[in-house]
Amino acid sequence: AVAVAVAVAVAVAVAVAVAVAVAVAVAVAVAVAVAVAVAVAVAVAVAVAVAVAVAVAVAVAVTGCQGPRSPRIRLAAAAAAAAAAAAAAAAAACRRRAPPRPPPWYRPPMDVVRKVRTQLEHGTLDGDEAVAQLEDLAHRGATRAMRLAAAELLGDLAGRAHQVEWVVAERAAFALLELARLAEGRVERTGVLAAMGRGFRNAWLLPYVHRRLFDDDDDVIVAALGAAGGLGLPALEESVLAFVGEARPPRLRGAAMAALGRMGAMSAAGRLVPWIGGDVDDAVLALTALTEIRAGVGADAALGAIEADLEPELTVAAARYLAELGDARVLPALRRLARAGDAATRLGASQAARAYKAERDRDAGERFLVAMAESDRAVRSLLARRLRTLPVADVLAQAEVLLDDDPAGVVEVLGELRAPEVTRFLLAVAARLALPVVVRARAISAIEADLPWEQAALVELAVDPAAPGELRAAAAQVLGPFVTGRDLLARLGALATAGPSLRAALLWAVQLAVRPDAEPGAGDALGRELERVVGGLLGDPEPAVRRRAAYVAGNLELRGLVPALLGTIAATQPVDVRLAGQIALAELGTPTPAVADQLAVVMIGEDDARVLTAAARALAAWSGPGRALPARLVERARAQLGGDDERAREAWVRVAGLAGGAIAVPTLAVRIDDAAPAVRGAALLAIGRIGGPAATPVLLAGLDHADVALRERAALGLLGAADPAAGPRLVEFAAGDGDGAVRARVAAELVVAPTGPARAALDRAVVAALARLPADDPAYEPLVNRRIELARVDGDGAGDAGPAALDVDASITTLFPSFPAMTQLGALATLVKSMRTAEALYHATLRLTDADQSPPIVLWMKVMENYVHAWLGGRMAALQREPHVLFSYVERVSASAWPSYQRWLEPRWRDPVDIGGARVDVPVRAITNAMRELQDHRRKRLDSPLSVTEWSRLLVLFAVDHPSGMQNLFKLKARSADEMVRLAHSLHALAAVRNAVTHRAAAGADTALAFRRDFYAAFETLVHLA
Fold this sequence. Notes:
Leucine-rich Repeat Variant, two-stranded antiparallel ribbon
């Protein structure tokens, strides 16, 4: 009974609580309803009040001038008018702030990619589903940044990040290769390459990355070098190492060093050591790469860099390298760096100290197990490299113990050591019949075959008919990158008649063995041999071999195989073979009517969407301008423009652009709102190719697109349309923030109207653009050329003395007699071109009233800056290779020589200087500013040009012999010290004028005239000294 009573009481209490909660909810709802009603009432009242006020204002406005107006009426009218004006302004502001309706192709912002990454990191998203989502975003993202972010995450999955299976990694790699195939702009190509660099050890990406190492665009090469480092495959080491040389530009050399470190290239370690004694940038890059490689060959050079007490960043890099090796000689440096005043230096020392402590524990078993236990392949690679600093015998003993338990894991860890003893162990593993064939093949693939005996062992295995096919194929593929093309064909050419897998392996090896810079004397003989081998395999009975042969023919640019490649795109071939053939033909494309006709006929009957996209690009590459397409192809393109598959739509839009106007612009304009960015971009280019009055408005609207990639396509389309009215908008684009190469091309190919308002508008736009662009912008000099063209006087106003009739070379030679000889030097072709541009611009603007003469002055000094740096940069670098001698000289000059030298200088160093009315200060006391870095034991950074001001001061300090102790360390052969001082003073003054007209004032005609005279006089002296 008590229990029942308690239960009843509890039930009653619960019921009361529920009733109270319901009552509270009802009260809240009523309150909300009342609040809404009040708000509505207030809004209605305000609206009524505004309406009444407007009515009163209207009435007063209508009747105020016809009858008496009392003060109250006037006050009410004023209030009503103010209310009406405020309401109108608010409505207009709301209209301005209202976001535009998103177009049909809109996709959510970057958060979508971040969401996918977060789900993968937390294990809440399956790898297959992630690849599907990322593929969609990479092709259909609203902006280029979103598409490249999705590609980057695909790269992670291609490298088996987030513990995805190999099948998922393959699918991600194929998705990246598809993106690379469709990429057109430089930004897209470099972005996809950067994404590939995240696909650690995914061999499917290797041929594409290898081919891009020999691209014509330095930006693409830098991206390919980064991708090669990220892939971490030994097969790319020789190709990357070729960029580490004095003849290579510093940018490419630095990217190559970083890539070698990232991939852990043991074969490159010895060739990186000499760079430790070079310029600070090269030294730091070399030490960083050696630290990642964990090779001890540079320890003595690093210790020497520490003892030299040079730049802090160099000392920290050397200390970190020695600490990672566990070298006890680094301890004094670590103690010194720990007391540095700079936080970055102290933090670097702290990290190095922790690395040193960790390295002192040299238990090979523990390091081996830690590496094998790591699930992420990239992290496992970094952990495995810690074994490189241990005795190889100890590491191999541990490998022998663990081999039976996890042979695949042991092989993967040993593959990171890349020592000769390890190669012997891996060859022995490959010979163990008890192990799975896949493990034995992986053991072969892990070999770094940079030594002759290793190459001989691989050749022996590859041609051994008794060995399993998987091992023979692996041996052939590993050998390719480490030998030349001729050597490979001589030693493995017999595989061309072996089994299908070996024939495919030979092709794989061939495309990696043939490197343009590796066989300078090979010439046509190697090309003929390659065409014989690859051409024979284009007709192979196995489709997989034919497909790979087609790709190799395109990658190696074997133009003699075009007829055979045309056979691979026939309708009887499998889809994959047709796709490979079309891609190869697009790579080899040169306008040829016969080939274009065959491609058009094949495309009429093609139905696969992927093949169609490649076929459209191949047709565009082989078709010349004005070439008519078959009517059947045009009709099919018109019918398929709105098809279901976006890849097919893109292909037919491209064909429509090649049809010479047979498909009208309004028909194509519909595709600008397509859901696929590739279709939108193709439509803009096609409309530009067609041109005509209907094209310009459509393309101008494209310049306002939110996606910078489509703005670039619209600008290129406007170039094709060749409408002078679009000139000002194109100049605005050229001076914007898009891809520099595209902006420079747009600026260079602008169509200039002969006369009229369009020409005047373009001139104003160019002048405004030049005023805000820096002189080193890629679009600056092309815009200067447009300015010259616009400044010419046409028609009757152009006489023999006008700019249109100007002999630029003769004009320069009158003041610069050595100019004709300078034009004969191919290495100076770019500088000669810029000098001619500046001279023509000077004469073009000289005839204009009140014209600003700053642009030619800026361009002249750009030429001077590059010439002086090219001349003196090597001499300064030579001095800096012996830093102690250099620093000793600088200390002696600062302490004792400078005061008496300054007294000698002062009467020879005019200050201030007047150049055509431009008065500038060139104080003699400022000359020693050029020594500040050197006084702090910091060498000059010579990877980019120093200013002319800096070089002029260095000439005074390092190119004059004087009894005070000053020395001509540059070894320049001036006639006298006075001549060198006059040259340095002239350069300093010219640089000061350039700075003045760039930042503070416009240059008049008198200033430009005097500047031109002094510039060419100084250049004449420079040429004689050089």
